[in-house]
Structures are given as C-alpha cells and as structure tokens.
Amino acid sequence: MKVLAIGGAGHVGSEVVKELLKRKAEVDVVVRKEGTKVSEGANAVIGDLLDPVFLEKVLNGIDKLYLLNAVTPDELTQALIAYALAKRLKVKHIVYHSVFRVDHFKDVPHFASKFAMESALHTFDLPFTIIRPNYFSQNDLGLKDPLTKAGIYPMPLGPVGVSTVDVRDIAEATAIALTTAGHEGKTYNLNGPDIVSGLGAAAIWSEVLGKEIKYAGHDMDEFEKQMRDKSPAWSAFDIRMMFQGYIERGFVAGEDDIETLTTLLGHAPRRYIDFARETAVAWQSKPVAPGFSTAA
C-alpha cells in the first residue's frame, strides 16, 4: 500500500507516518523545502500544495491519502486542490485530519476551513474517514520555561476544561483507519479520558514538578497580545478564538467517544497526567524539543 502524507513532516503528521511505516505501508511525505527531515523509511517529495501540477504528479499511483493541512490563510484552498485531484485520480481512500467539535466553532477561522472541507468530503463519492482530535497533550511540551522558571501554567483552558488527547493515540488511530478495512464514511472524535481545566492542569504540573504552579487565568485580550509577539496577527486572532471557544462552549468528550477510541486503538487512550509525568522526567534529563502547535 502506498500512502501520500500531506502534513506528514510536522509534529503530529510525523507520528502518523511512523505508525504507517510500522504497518509496512510505503509513505511519501510532501515537504516545502529541500532538507526537511521526514521519518526514517519515508520518502520526501518537495513541492507547493497550491500547485495542482505538482500535486497531480505526486498523487498519481497513490493508494491512500492522509490530509493534514497546516493552519494558514489558504488552508481550505490547499485542502480542496488535494481533494479534487485525489477524486480525479481515483485514490482509494482519504483520511482527513479535522478537529473536535468543528461544527460548533464556525467563528474560528481554521475550524471553519476544516468544516468546509468535511462538507466537501460528504458531497462526493471518494471513500473517506474523518478524524477529529481534541487539544493535543503535546501542545504543552513547549511550556518548560513558564512552568519550571515562572511557576505558571499559561494556556487558557478555562474553568470547564478540555478532553486532551495524546498525539500517539491520534497517530495510531489514523494509521489504523488508513491500513485496515471498515472505516469508510466514519468520523472519529479523538479524546482522552481526562477533562483538563486551567486550574486542573496547574495542579497536575504542581504534582509532577514538585513545586507550586499557578494558573495564569484566561484574560483573552492579554493572551492574544502575547500571541502576537510570537505569531502573525491573523494567527494570534485564530488561536485566541479557539481558546475563547473552549471557555464559552466547552471542549469535553461526548458520551461514547472514549469507548469508541478504546475499541479503535485496542487499548485505553493515554492520560494527560501520564504525559506530564513523562515530560517532567524528560526535562530533567535533557533539553526539551520545541512544542507542538497550539492550534488543534
């Protein structure tokens, strides 16, 4: 089986590619720049996702497509080009990486793009599976300095919280959907078993780090201002709207989500506290790697 992985060089996509390689799939990974590292055993193909000529070439002969579009102003255009060409070339199956509760967050730009892409998938006859992950536990890998130096948990998860999901579970679920039968037409909500609020996250990090960690709160104007120091203005606004949605509308797993994911994986989804414990140990032994994107 030959799989094209769009988004397969990123933090989440690279884990998906590793799981596909474990299952003996042949994997091509689209990258934008020469020298971009991909998982050992995968093949990097260099090109522009806005170039239909390039995409038609790399999709030719592909059995299945993993489509994870980066959060960019032209995210939807990139996704629709890839999808249209996959239909034309009769790719056997596409697994689209969307986001949890996408239909309830249409005011968040990158959620709206993903919801539009989901609508396209439902309109035509190309076999598809949609995965909808929650907030990644590994987003918090990038919080070493505020946690260990300032004693602050800075992510505005709010008072209700989110059902954080481990990237390793996302990768396994995606690879299973791509390499085994019975997933066509299905949408999987990928949630972890614990609801993590802002105060709850601070309490977990207090426990695993052995020091008091305080929750920074959820002043969204201040949060967006801080994000603008690190990201383009459009991205800071997008991320602000996502977290504001968490606070206003909640991001908690549905009644059957954990049971469904457990059945799909063949094991219970990983817990946030276990991720935090592993991370605390890793921080003591070596420098932390750059954090994951805060965009779900």
From TrEMBL:
<dbReference type="InterPro" id="IPR036291">
    <property type="entry name" value="NAD(P)-bd_dom_sf"/>
</dbReference>
<dbReference type="InterPro" id="IPR008030">
    <property type="entry name" value="NmrA-like"/>
</dbReference>
<feature type="domain" description="NmrA-like">
    <location>
        <begin position="2"/>
        <end position="242"/>
    </location>
</feature>
<dbReference type="Pfam" id="PF05368">
    <property type="entry name" value="NmrA"/>
</dbReference>
<dbReference type="InterPro" id="IPR051604">
    <property type="entry name" value="Ergot_Alk_Oxidoreductase"/>
</dbReference>
<protein>
    <submittedName>
        <fullName>Uncharacterized protein YbjT (DUF2867 family)</fullName>
    </submittedName>
</protein>
